[in-house]
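Please predict the structure of the following assembly.
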Amino acid sequence: MKYFIFSILLLHLNLISAQQNLIKYVKPIIGSEKMGHTYPGATVPFGAVQLSPETDTISYELNGKYNGDVYKYCAGYKYEDKTIVGFSHTHLSGTGHSDLGDFLVMPTQGKLQLNPGTASDTKSGYRSAFSHSNEISEAGYYKVKLDDHAIIAEMTATTRVGMHQYTFPKSDESHIILDLMAGIYNYDEKNVWTYIRVVNDSLITGYRQTNGWARTRTVYFAMSFSKPFANYGQKNYDTKQSYRGFWRKFDESKNFPEIAGKKIRMYFDFKTEEAEKIKIKFALSSVSQENALENMQSEIKDWNFEKVKTDAQKLWNDELNKIKIEASEDNKKNFYTAMYHTFINPTAYTDVNGQYKGLDQDTHTANGFTNYSTFSLWDTYRALHPFFNIIQPSRNNDMIKSMMAHYKQSALHMLPIWSHYSNDNWCMSGYHSVSVIADAIIKGVYNGDPNEALDACVATAKHRNYEGIGTYMDLGFIPDEKSGTSVSNTLEYAYDDWCIAQLAKKLDRQEIYEEFIKRSSNWKNNFNPTTGFMQPKLANGTFKSNFDAMTTHGQGFIEGNSWNYSFFVPHNPTELIAKMGGKSAFSDRLDTLFSMHLPDSFFAETEDITREGIIGGYVHGNEPAHHVAYFYNWTNEPWKTQYQVRKIMKMQYKPTPNGLGGNDDCGQMSAWYIFSSLGFYPVAPGSTEYAIGSPLVNNAVLTLENGKMFTIEVLNQKDKNVYVQKIVLNGKPLPTLFINHNDITAGGKLTFYMGSKPKK
Amino acid sequence: MKYFIFSILLLHLNLISAQQNLIKYVKPIIGSEKMGHTYPGATVPFGAVQLSPETDTISYELNGKYNGDVYKYCAGYKYEDKTIVGFSHTHLSGTGHSDLGDFLVMPTQGKLQLNPGTASDTKSGYRSAFSHSNEISEAGYYKVKLDDHAIIAEMTATTRVGMHQYTFPKSDESHIILDLMAGIYNYDEKNVWTYIRVVNDSLITGYRQTNGWARTRTVYFAMSFSKPFANYGQKNYDTKQSYRGFWRKFDESKNFPEIAGKKIRMYFDFKTEEAEKIKIKFALSSVSQENALENMQSEIKDWNFEKVKTDAQKLWNDELNKIKIEASEDNKKNFYTAMYHTFINPTAYTDVNGQYKGLDQDTHTANGFTNYSTFSLWDTYRALHPFFNIIQPSRNNDMIKSMMAHYKQSALHMLPIWSHYSNDNWCMSGYHSVSVIADAIIKGVYNGDPNEALDACVATAKHRNYEGIGTYMDLGFIPDEKSGTSVSNTLEYAYDDWCIAQLAKKLDRQEIYEEFIKRSSNWKNNFNPTTGFMQPKLANGTFKSNFDAMTTHGQGFIEGNSWNYSFFVPHNPTELIAKMGGKSAFSDRLDTLFSMHLPDSFFAETEDITREGIIGGYVHGNEPAHHVAYFYNWTNEPWKTQYQVRKIMKMQYKPTPNGLGGNDDCGQMSAWYIFSSLGFYPVAPGSTEYAIGSPLVNNAVLTLENGKMFTIEVLNQKDKNVYVQKIVLNGKPLPTLFINHNDITAGGKLTFYMGSKPKK
């Protein structure tokens, strides 16, 4: 007994001690195989640069053909591949649609080749074979040996600058390729324009403009070499170049410093000694070359690669130390890699001088906040932003300010749907900015004007000509004739409307509250009491015939069939349960979801997930049912939540390259995991309530920005002890299976007593 | 006699009186037919906006075909045409290559048509027939009736804003088209990108990016309507648009405010009453939409079209009043239209807040000067900039500051060759910035650092990999094997080098002086004493065989054959005369040039001029021989200069649409006329000396910026009295046929006594 107490004390000391080395648990390679769509390269928390290898890119042309496998290469890198094309500076983490891949750099030696070549014959181009045994992927650091060129490539980053370090063999023909044709997207006209200026023999600047998932996007850069290049040159692969023939006064192919065109590849020649290192600093800006250069000069002052790496890893370790856990090695890997993945997006989109390019394509200055981009809100409103409200409130505050800036710059007068580098790509359904905003304001995280924010939410929710909102407002649902995703839209709008109502209530804006609390019950209009399912309705008010609850497409849904989506009333489970026949029937129905057998046709049409991303009929690899396992808490069988969430954590998250069962979706999958590991989950952001699940950690200490600590202690934790027997909050038994946000931010201790049998 | 004296007094009083209405003599339509390549629309002196009708544009697609007649439509408007396509905001004046034509606006009524239609069937599109009888073209004002739509179109401008006024008939279907596909250039991929933002129901902003003669060019705009549009919409004609299908959440064709793409046409719908006027303010910026809006708000505060027009015409009148002449009505029209054309280019390229886009594509601020673009220097160094040194010294000072800014922003570290909207199009030969700079510094016009300017000249002249400079420096000439224009290049470099030498001498930079005075005699290396002609030389030092002095192409020249170009030693006629066999032989040779008969093959290959642009073998419509008529002054027959220049003025300049015998070339042709009309000409800019010709005016008073007045009095002026009998400067007979720049800037009076017989 004495020993036990001593251990607890030791543990506690350990958890609150200065800092642990936690980055050793981060395995960026997790999710890089199959469906996770994560990337293994170097970035810092919320960094604007994601410097990562690409094993294939979409936008390059090879023998007149484009690689059409856009979906596979959303993150540029597939663990399954055997060759690396190069290292580019921007990547989306875990998305199901592709873009970015800007400024592909590749070191080579021997005969200069400007085309990437094929994976089956690396000698046909500049690409190289590589082996995972020669690859190191850490938070803030990536290293690989490029077999074809006998070059060691290393990379690290600051917020706005990627740093490369290439160790060359002795060669009179060492090269660094800068491929400005390369990019990630499935459209051969993605490259709109490229401009490059060779300032001197070791600095170039320029910009690249693309028409990809982000429609109108410009990225400026500054690229500095640690060693002057001996020669440089370029080739323009555009077959339809402007007529300038008569006035070509220069040989523009070699050592010509003012380059512009649509499809440019550049090279830089060096003579290298054995093991000579050539380093590159590559800075980005959304505003100007000048700003890119300022970003570079501010963030990396010299050529000390090790220092930049150490600093990057310290930034990561600082972030990771905000939650110290005790858990198995594998669970620590899963947990800290999940934290790593939640701290990648959104990404900083402000230069060091505060400037950024707004949605209106003009330059703005972010006064008193960091502007962010890459808001995959349909995914991330669920758990990522709620997680930030606990562990990154300052950043989430800035993210809401970024959304408000987007709103003010929007000619549509709308909050972002999917904020994407000075664009909205309007991807997926709902207007979930309002959930993020309401949740943050209700939880006291936003320090801007809450009434202005509410007005922005209302304006967005009343934008009649956006995706059926007009008919939704008129009829209370979207007729199937008007939209292929009428049901999921109506359900998501209803939830978002509830968020607006909650915010209006808090701000004492009674009229808005009443309007939106009424709208929030619109989910009922798609509920068919006869079948017990959410179903598409026709304009005449009748349900569409030939309903199939197993099928997504053509049935009014997106990324989830009616079996999953019928549970999408996160803001009113009580009434949903009543509609579905009461607690017992509801619980049985959840059981069926988690145990049903799916036909093969289901897998054929389901996007973004592997077969392993599904448990019974429950699709964890997509987001619409992420809250569903927690719904047992509203029934008389809450232990089934405990059972299911532990099962999901075990089945869907593994510390291996193929460890994610679906797209990580800019951190949403990972945020689900973190919440669930800690034992609770925000079923309805906009509410301050978290539903209790079954913690996976043995213990956890959250260090909050307000200086408070919140400890989660799990007693009798074992693999088979998934059932919660008792919960004590700050010494008092928890009366329900819910805790409040204030319980966490006030600091304190939540103790779980676990057992192998349900506590009925 | 008393009456005569009284008349003279009256005349003098008239000439120096407060202000005359001189814009009535300006006929912008002069040169708009055939080869002049001028435009008839509205602009202010050196304005950034040139709002002018287009009778056809190059870059629009019609039934899958492009109008290939790029050369014809350099200025967008051809007097010969019967239809107008629309009114765009940027035009080059008098060039022989095409670009610009940004933001074509066209008012229509009736059925909406978004394609321009054909000239032969105006009903097939939005274009309209028009008649010159319903057309008014004035300095700063243009008006035309669009017959197909029964709409009166009027336009005027400020420096950075074009103002339209359309008088509609009563119609429920009135439209204003904004065609963002239209543009002037011969390349169907000119449009790189377009972005438009509908800010509200009467304001849109955006930008247009092109790859034309200027390779990398972006023009931002703000467009404000005096009346809110009822509806608006767009069509994207790009057949290869980015994949965005699934995420099209809006009907983007109508009332959708965030538009982007390569080939966009927009429309704005109105309901109009009979004679209702809809006005548009259309502002440009090279920097941002925000700046365009600021330009608009600063320059036109309300909707008073008449006031803007009055202000524009006052600006013109102020400029024109700097030279008051007495002459025949026709000669006044020619003279003031020439002044008008000389004050169009270069164009202001700075926003009201001082910002502009530099050659490096970054935003810069012009501190203490107006930044200018559109420097057609191969043309304009000859007479336009020397004219500015007399009559626009402040602006020429700013122009040189603009050139220096260009130099500092140039990755090539070169002064401009042809400065073109943040680009250098490197058109034509030589590096004539150095002539403009040397001339201005030597004449005391430049208030920047002259040594820095000299360094920029030297760096440019030593840029070895530009257009044969390397071999020119090594061999003293450019081998024919290296360049198709080896002889004209060598000749022009030699003259430019002499300018550098003159500047170095003034600045006491002895080493530079010696180096460049030596280089300035390189013209001798292409002079073949056997033939007496400038001829292409091979790398082995021998002259190329099959020489043909009548032919330009393939003979080492550009825009001038050896007959014309062999006289291109403006800086050293004395030695050229010696080489060519002495004064008498030289004089005979000039006679031959002016009287020879040309074969038809000559006209087939000669660009930029009409058959009328040629006198004998002397090509006035192109520039290389512009100084040649003045060369008789160095012989014993100077009266032949007097005869020839009067003949050239009479034959080459007429107050009619087809009145210019060649491209006006951004004012060079006009500047030649102004100098010659006043009786003198700068044969070798860089020297302070002007060669005397034969004035066409009766009298002229130049009001200089330093407050001094310089009067040219011509006694016994008649059409046939082309010969100068005597010249008196400030009461003293002029000892030579040359006057000095200082004679002019000091103020005073130059009296010509004319007669019908040569004064031998």
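The first strand of chain A starts at residue 52 and ends at 54. Residues 633 and 641 of chain A are 7 Å apart (CA to CA).
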